[in-house]
Each structure stands twice: as structure tokens, then as C-alpha cells.
Amino acid sequence: MSVQKAVRRITAPEIAARKGVEPIVSLTAYHAHTAAIADPFVDFLLVGDSLGMVMHGYETTLPVPLDLMIMHGKAVMRGAKRALVVVDMPFGSYEESPQVAFRNAARIIKETECGAVKLEGGQRMAETIHYLTERGIPVMAHIGLTPQSINVLGGFKTQGRTRDQWQLIEEDARAVAGAGAFSVVLEAMASPLADRLTKAVPIPTIGIGASANCDGQILVMEDMLGLSPRVPKFVREFGKVGKAIERAIKLYAQDVRSREFPAPEHTYDVKD
Ligand code: KIV
Q1: Domains of the chain in sequence order
Q2: What tens digit of pLDDT does each residue of 174-185 get?
């Protein structure tokens, strides 16, 4: 009989209950291996549609298909056993109607077995958030800079830099909380606005380029590891993984060219 203890996974209601208790730690993850490394240290992992840019070389997140999100969602679920896994709904998979959103969110939940989905938009998505949560799908909202609206926003622009923009953004935050979202990502917005929203809503705010006073923080893992060629101003590189990879590959190439690899300890001899 197996004596392995089952690891219980963190749930969306547990994340919601962390408001005002202890900062929520999160990162994006796209594959099983990095998800497994991050799992003991984070509360949730987001399979963000940023994977289109980070892993697949697109200029924006707009081309990312639902099937790709599901494939990466499955990989992250196989790697992480403890953290809540949230999978992004990609552009075009939820905006049309609450019914279309439900159909696609249900596919994500059934096929990946993740614990929640995330979608972008404030007031305009409130009805959909309500529809999904009423039908058993926990939703993380995402307001401020919403990369799927890049063509309307006119670029990856910080939001709320002037106070006249604040009221609409605050209405977005209140609308998604009122609709039943269990938390809300605040992306690239003026820090005093993020502080104000964090006080205004009863659900945890998860900042990315927002404020240290948010209820939690998220970063794109490759950005904070020092693996991305360009990062926004708000990213701190906690590692230099890109440089380490480059050094290792240079050494390997040198050793292959000088026939020092494979050395005898890396080769197999005959047994007789
Ligand atoms: O897609 C993503 O990685 C995200 C985070 C930046 C919050 O939405």
C-alpha cells in the first residue's frame, strides 16, 4: 500500500480569503518542469496567454488559440501539485457572450483540471463573470492594462497616470468584484490608483506593475528569471538565467568542437 501523503491543492476560495491576511505570491508558468520548481513557493500559477509572446515569439497575445492554452495548462497541472493553477482565456474565446465564455471555460476546466480561469475586462465583462461563477467556474478578473485590448489602448500603456481616468478604472474593479470574481489582476497602473482599488474592493488585488500594497503580486516567470530579452520597467530580475544558459551552451559548443565531449565518463563501454 502506498504511504505517500496526497498534497492538497490551494483553491480559489482560499486565495479570496487571503485578502488583508498575508501577501499572495504568484508567477506565470507554461511548462511542467518550471511549474514543479515554483510550486512549493507560490500560492497560484497562472498559465498566462503571455506564453504567446514569451514562448512562441508573437508580438502580442492576440494570436494565441484556446487549444494552445489547454496544452500548456495540462503541462502546468502535471508539474504543480500544490498551487492553484489558473488558465487564461485567450482573445476571442469569451467576449462574444456569456454562453460562449462558459463553453470555452468549461473546456479549459475539464481538459486541464485547473482550478480557475482568468479573463480580461472590467464592467463590460461583469455579466460573463457572474454567469461563469454561478455555474461553478471561479474567475480571476484582469483590469488596468489589458494586453488583449492593445489595438484599442494604442500600445502597452500604463493606465491611470492622470486622475481623470481613475473613476472608470475603479468602477471596473467594483464591477468585477460585485460579479463574483475571486480576485483581480491590476496590470501596469499608477501606484496610488492600485492602492485605492485595493482598499475599495473586498477581493484580493494581484499587482503586476501596480503597487507593493496590492494583496498579492505576479510576474512573468521568464522576466523575473532574467530570461527575457526585454522587460518592462516594473520587472525586477531576481536571477540571470539567460546569461547562465548562454555560458553553458558556449562551453558545450567549445567542448564538442575540440572533441572533449563526450569524455570517457559520459560514454558506454562494452560489458564483456
Ligand atoms: O498573460 C499573462 O501572463 C498575464 C499576467 C501578466 C498577469 O495576464
Answers
A1: 12-240 (3.20.20.60)
A2: 999 999 999 999
